[in-house]
Design goal:
Elements (H helix, E strand, L loop, with lengths): L6 H24 L1 H27 L10 H15 L2 H9 L12 H7 L1
Amino acid sequence: MTTESSPFKRYWRPVLILLAIALVLWLAWVSMAVLIPFLIGILLAYLLLPLVQWMERILPPRGKAAKARRVISIIIVFVIFCSSGILRRLYRFCTGGSFNGDAGQSAAVHAARA
């Protein structure tokens, strides 16, 4: 006794999975402008973690500050990183400016001046 299933019953799960994947990809594409700063933040946190861990190891443990070594090392690394100008250059690059002091001016403006 065999029962024949309709094509819809046989393929409903793969079709729904493909639709769900398409929906997730579409949402990622639509919200890309919002997601890029978060992705840059995740990348920077990943790249700066070894420096924070090294700084935490070299800080001497003293009394109450021993518990706050991680926070102190994060603050030190953040101040060094921000003062180095890397964030400013990264912001200029992401907003379409260049590194020679003309942030916000597009290539079309430079071409019109030439």
